[in-house]
Amino acid sequence: MNRRLVPARIAVAIAMLSAFISGCAARHEPPMTTLAPKSDLAQWIYSLFLEVTLWDAGIFAIVVAAFILAIFVFSTRVGEAAAPSSVASDLGLEVAWTLGPALVLLMISIPTVRTIFRSQPRIAPQGSLEIKVIAHQWWWEFQYAQSGITTANELHLPIGRQIRLNLESGDVIHSFWVPQLGGKRDVVPGQINELTLEANVPGTYLGQCAEFCGLSHANMRFRVMVETPDQFAMWEKAQQAAPLAADKAVSPSAADGAEVFANSPCTSCHRIDGVSKGYIGPDLSHFGARTTLAAGIMPNTPDNVAKWVTDPETLKPGVLMPKLGLSGKQLDDLVAYLESLK
Ligand code: CUA
Questions:
Q1: Any alpha helices (H) in the chain, and if so which ranges?
Q2: Which DSSP category does 176 fall into?
Q3: How far, in Å, CA of 300 to CA of 341, rounded?
Q4: Count of CA atoms in the C-beta half-sphere (13 A) of 140
Q5: Global pTM?
Q6: What pLDDT sits at residue 27?
Q7: Ligand 1, atom nearest to 220 Cα
Q8: Is the CB of residue 164 below 6 angstroms from any atom belonging to ligand 1?
Q9: What average pLDDT does the chain have?
Q10: Measured in angstroms, how far is the CA atom of residue 153 from the centroid of ligand 1?
Q11: Residue 328 vs residues 192, 254, 286, 333, 340: alpha-carbon distances, Å
Q12: Is residue 243 within 8 Å of residue 342, measured between CB atoms?
């Protein structure tokens, strides 16, 4: 192979690889990055990262300088025989290379430990919004203790208010992680872990279970909608209201779908306020108001809901939800009903 072609090929391979990797993130999705913090907690972690990186860069520069001096200044040249050192040990040097690294570790650990304690006060800050987060294989349940709202996979938070998340697991170990808001925190069965933060920039932020928890671990996503206090209050009000019963005159299909739902096995797993009391799967009382379905793996569109109801196992391997065997008008009606639950 032409030798001059090798670097060119390597460059092309690197360019293709980076294009491939960056292509993994859909362009319209918000970034899952810890480098653009949108909460106090994420900001502390980011500052800590910068601080430690700065110390590391300083140490790296010193090591490189010492290395260059050793090679080019203090080494012997060909033909110059240097007398070997007659000193067996050097107390000063030994103290220096023992104390030096200890000091470096101390400088890194003090801000780290300070951030850890700051991020998990034992008692929830006064006036904080308390939310119980329950991780399930493979979806997230959010219960707002103060307002009685239960929702799934889409967490709404107001800016400018302390948020206290109490994390529990319904089965195995999961990990709650929203890179732009801070984290991660393990969600462990039989234990409540806390996360306290204050979001400060409205927007939608992506979350993901960050602990391998079985077949559909990668399909255990969620999103956090950070809103202004007014927007949040509106959302809260809509969620607290009972879902509107499907009106036969407005949408005959949704009204028929309500009957399909009421007579289906769906009712034993899913709750709809005033309709069914299931608790194994997500609460569907306001399903139509959510932007995604099946723990954030697809946009909430009628087509996707139909696909999901028809064959959940293919879309989310290992899922508990069975195939319902619905088709044709029954399926269309059920989808229309679910989408009407705003
Ligand atoms: Cu839950 Cu991974």
A1: 5-23, 40-72, 91-119, 229-240, 252-262, 302-310, 312-315, 328-340
A2: E
A3: 12
A4: 33
A5: 0.82
A6: 55
A7: 1
A8: no
A9: 88
A10: 13
A11: 45, 14, 24, 9, 19
A12: yes
pLDDT tens digit sequence for 82-99: 676 777 788 888 999 899
Closest ligand 1 atom to residue 174 Cα is 1
- 286: closest CA among 300, 298, 299? 300
Task: Indicate if ligand 1 lies below 6 Å from the C-beta of 195.
Answer: no
One-letter amino acid at 322 equals P
Q: What is the pLDDT of residue 19?
A: 57
Q: Give the pLDDT confidence of 203-230 residue by residue, as tens digits.
A: 999 999 999 999 999 999 999 999 999 9
Atom of ligand 1 nearest to the CA of 214: 2
Instruction: Determine if ligand 1 sits within 6 Å of the CB of residue 134.
Output: no
Question: Beta strands 139-144 and 149-152: pairing type?
Answer: antiparallel
Nearest-atom number in ligand 1 for the CA of 135 is 1
Check whether the bond before 184 is cis (ω within 30° of 0).
Answer: yes
CA 195 to ligand 1 centroid distance, Å:
17
Q: Are 223 and 207 in contact (CB under 8 A)?
A: yes
| Dist. CA 273–CA 261, nearest whole Å | 13
Q: Which residue lies with its CA nearest to atom 1 of ligand 1?
A: 174
Amino acid in position 340? S
- The pair of three-digit structure tokens given for residue 290, joined into one six-digit string: 């959510």
Nearest 5°: phi and psi at 117?
-65, -35
169 CB-contact burial (10 Å; exposed 0-12 / middle 13-18 / buried 19+): buried
State mean pLDDT over 125-137.
Answer: 94
Tokens of 160: 């400018």
pLDDT-derived band at 176 (thresholds 50, 70, 90) equals very high
What are the pLDDT digits (tens) for 31-78?
Answer: 899 999 999 999 999 999 999 999 889 999 999 999 999 888 887 777
Query: Which is the closest atom of ligand 1 to the Cα of 217?
Result: 2
Radius of gyration over alpha carbons of the chain, in Å? Answer: 28
Residue 333 Cβ contacting ligand 1 at under 6 Å: no
Rounded distance, CA 120 to CA 142, Å? Answer: 19
Count other C-beta atoms under 10 Å from residue 41's C-beta.
23
Question: pLDDT > 90: what percent of the chain?
Answer: 56
Place of tokens 């059920």: 334
